[in-house]
Amino acid sequence: MTRADAVRNRRLLMDAATAEFAENGMDVSITRIATRAGVGKGTVFRHFDTKEQLLAEIFSDRLEELVAAGECLSTADDPGAALLEFMTIGTEIQARDRSFCQAAAALSRSEATVRASRERLADVADTLVARARGAGAIRDDVTGLDIVLLLSAASQAVLSLGGPGGENPSLWQRYLAMIFDGLRPGPTHPLPVPAPTRAQFTG
Amino acid sequence: MTRADAVRNRRLLMDAATAEFAENGMDVSITRIATRAGVGKGTVFRHFDTKEQLLAEIFSDRLEELVAAGECLSTADDPGAALLEFMTIGTEIQARDRSFCQAAAALSRSEATVRASRERLADVADTLVARARGAGAIRDDVTGLDIVLLLSAASQAVLSLGGPGGENPSLWQRYLAMIFDGLRPGPTHPLPVPAPTRAQFTG
DNA sequence: ACCTGAACACCGTTCAAGT
DNA sequence: ACCTGAACACCGTTCAAGT
């Protein structure tokens, strides 16, 4: 049987790692995480095969947060506003978490739990896009996967300023607004390259 | 006097580091770079105070590439097309270089040489934006700094797919096109947050 | 069953010894 | 004046020894 202190330590480690990764990015040391959790650093590797897997677990949690929000928005009154809200939540999560973008680029296909969350994220994005398109709120050459990939864009733009968005923590809203204006219907230019396929995304 | 082998080694190191950073990101080991250059790893630290400074030197070179391209485009016939071309070149540089985005986020203010290049980049972006606005090619609430920050956006979107854009190496063009459509004049929404100041960018 | 810290192979960086 | 590799303090990861 799994012991009581084991489940407690696992939770302490998840909490400590979540906070440290968010504050300092994915390069924080395991020792630092273990110390913050109040356990020996050997304990980290009893609960997680590798540092990458620990990061994946947390990254997956964040993705599920976004999936849950997206599912709520799937039945909202205004499909266009719902899609914007979905992108807002997704971008805000990244703006608050230094490790999110790094994890998105570094983990991509590796861990199974991440793959599953990404699949669900793509599903809910497809739903939101379909509804928004039906309402005429967005151009019709944009796909759900496009939306998922664009989630990183606005928060990344801000990183060039320095820190975790140290000063100007809400600047991402400006670039999200610009990007969303590019998704609107109207006199758009044809896109030069076809949308990525689901297979490319899932890996 | 600086010896002949010293200037030769410095060039070999810059070339090796440029290639390795582009291919494998900024986490490649100094040993690997030194080996590729054909020198002992102690030599790296004779030419560059730190790994970060070596990265900064290369990053700065890339920025100057873009500045030079921007200066050419400052006198182009079609100011709107010139701005798009500037963003295309900037995004392509990043799509080809795994370390560029990482360096942009990690170095930001630290190194003096980077600061100078960023300043010149902001200058040329201001010029291009002013001309494009004069020609009515873009909305009038977009600044030169906005353009600089948005350069990272399109290439970052693609990173969620995995690798250095392993498969689908031209997908960034799709997202750059969308983003550029968001910069066009017309029925845009007001931006929720003011543009960043030059001081914030320069650090 | 689980925790722990010493031990290992790496990393970036320093520096005494060479030419 | 510069090059070099051994030496140092770290890192992620493993594992024998404890409870």
From TrEMBL, chains A, B:
Q: Which domain of life is it from?
A: Bacteria
The entry's keywords: DNA-binding, Transcription, Transcription regulation
Xref: PROSITE patterns: HTH_TETR_1, HTH_TETR_2
Positions of the HTH tetR-type domain: 7-66
UniProt keyword Transcription regulation, yes or no: yes
InterPro entries recorded: DNA-bd_HTH_TetR-type_CS, Homeodomain-like_sf, HTH-type_TetR-like_transc_reg, HTH_TetR, Tet_transcr_reg_TetR-rel_C_sf, TetR_SbtR-like_C
A GO MF label: DNA-binding transcription factor activity
Q: Would the keyword Cell inner membrane be found if you checked this record's keyword annotation? A: no
Q: Which sections of the sequence are annotated for DNA binding?
A: 29-48
State what protein this is by name: TetR family transcriptional regulator
